[in-house]
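dumping this here before i forget
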Amino acid sequence: MIPLVPKASAVSGKGKDRFRQSCRKVIASVLVILTTTGLAAAMTPARAAVPDTLPAGDPGMVVAVVDGDTVVLDTGMEVRMVGIQAPKLPLGRRGFRSWPLAEEAKVTLETLVANRRFTPHFGGRQMDRHGRALAHLVSDGGIWLQGEMLRLGLARVYSFPDNTALVEEMLTLERAARDARFGIWSHPFYALRAADPAELSELIGTFQLVEGRILDAADVRGTVYLNHGEDWRTDFTTMIDRRAMKAFLAAGLDPATWSGTKVRVRGWLRSRNGPMIEATHPQQIELLDDTVETERE
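structure:
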């Protein structure tokens, strides 16, 4: 059998860098094949039911892929694919270490966009502070790029209060990939975390998905604290401030009544009377059935 790539021992000098890059591309291609083989649902590309009310921008071909969730169109528009977070690359940041599967996510995105034209659709704020467009990208053939990265397990849902279009659809795709342990969901770096303050305290400053049952929901002058332990000074807590509470109530949700409820919350962990995540909008918190079990590594 002829090997796909040469043996490492046969490569020297500058060729080693090209060899490593070739290996990464092969690995990413194999990853896509493995995560789409054997399951009919996984073989069907994600297609977006983009509401007619979402404004559309000028379509364009992708001329550059920055990382697993950012591309540049030939129209000159740089698009941060809103609603997802792919594994991060350093991108020039000194001392920043690549997250696991970051290179694979980028190569997979390069494969997905090749020879396809995409139209940006805007579901909220249209530009970030870096001047990048915040958009959903849909190909002429109806392939939803965010949905594909989630379906393959190469991104997590990452929403903001001013950009929540299609989040429910994205959460559904994320759950399916996680259940199948596709991509990042087979790596401990991205594991669902239990609401264990000792473990979570070691992860301060990172983006996490945390599952657990709320022991007490406390309303303190309009701010709601969802406490997962008996000692609010040290346990894991989700905080929902007055402004965010308006969005929850408008969605027919009252977190102050959630004592005893099992939830999955996502966000950046900070330290404030123990590990804490601030929920700024309802889509950050999923209400779970008793039958749902936490995946732990």
